[in-house]
Amino acid sequence: MERKPFIAGNWKMNMTAESGAALIKELAPLVKDADCDVALCVPAILIPAMTEAAKDSNIAIGAQNMHWEPKGAYTGEISADMLKEYGVKYVIIGHSERRQYFGETDETVNKRTRAVLAAGMTPIMCVGETLEEREGGLTEKVLAKQLETDLAGVEDVTKVVIAYEPVWAIGTGRTATDEQAQETIAFIRKKIGELFCPKCAEKVVIQYGGSMNAGNCKGLMAQPDIDGGLIGGASLKTDFATIVNYNK
């Protein structure tokens, strides 16, 4: 089954309208011939300016979070209609930092994921284990529970992008080996096959999201079950283009 690779940047709480637009203008000619889908998920306040900066390029602009309700008294949240107004295609859901710092649970990840799908956008749904869980041999158990809950009620799993983020490798500079990442992502694909169907699982794009960078992207992307990356720090500089062009 041929899956189109997908490299997405997560700017987290970085950049301004000026610096972000300048970076996109630098990146656009460097990634224009990419063989993969390309996106940058930016802070909500920057979406209008970054959409304008990325116009006429192959860089899609995504969001970093979205509420499951269409509107209401949810101070600080952002709705599907607000994102769609600016042509947002992708929304990161359940990033480990949202889980760690802002009380995100598998249940709220599920609500957000289904809301993104209902709005016709693509969720980049994050799963992953902590260092304590990995060292305790609990990786597969933790991931299985996350997938079961996070994907409950999803009708077409092929419209979900899964990002495997080993929490111990986020922002730490530590990275799973190519073999570790492949083994775990293969398990995720197998579990999706059990929850839905094997053919569906073969169509699902699964990214690696644990400190992929210009130096390790080729090895990771060479693995049969790794279809892309959710890139943190490296997406804040032109190194991002090297990752996007991993096969050149």
Account of the protein in words:
The protein has one domain (6-244): TIM Barrel, CATH 3.20.20.70. Helix content is 40%, strand content 15%. The chain is built from eleven helices and eight strands. The chain has an eight-stranded parallel beta sheet with strand order 7-6-5-4-3-2-1-8. β1 (6-10), α1 and β2 (37-41) form a beta-alpha-beta unit. The mean pLDDT is 96.
- The fourth-level CATH homologous superfamily is Aldolase class I
Report the strand count: 8
Q: Give the C-level CATH assignment.
A: Alpha Beta
Q: What is the helical fraction, as a range of percent?
A: 25-40%
First-residue to last-residue Cα separation: 22 Å
Alpha-carbon Rg, integer: 17 Å
Describe the largest sheet.
8 strands, parallel
Domain tally: 1
CATH architecture: Alpha-Beta Barrel
Give the H and E element order: EHEHEHEHHEHHEHHEHEH
Q: Helices and strands: which structural class?
A: alpha/beta
- The whole-number mean of residue pLDDT values reads 96
CATH T-level topology: TIM Barrel
Low-confidence stretches: none
Number of helices: 11
Taken from the alpha-carbon principal axes, the silhouette is globular
Residues in β-strands, percent = 5-15%
Taking strands numbered 1, 2, ... along the chain, how are they ordered across the largest sheet? 7-6-5-4-3-2-1-8
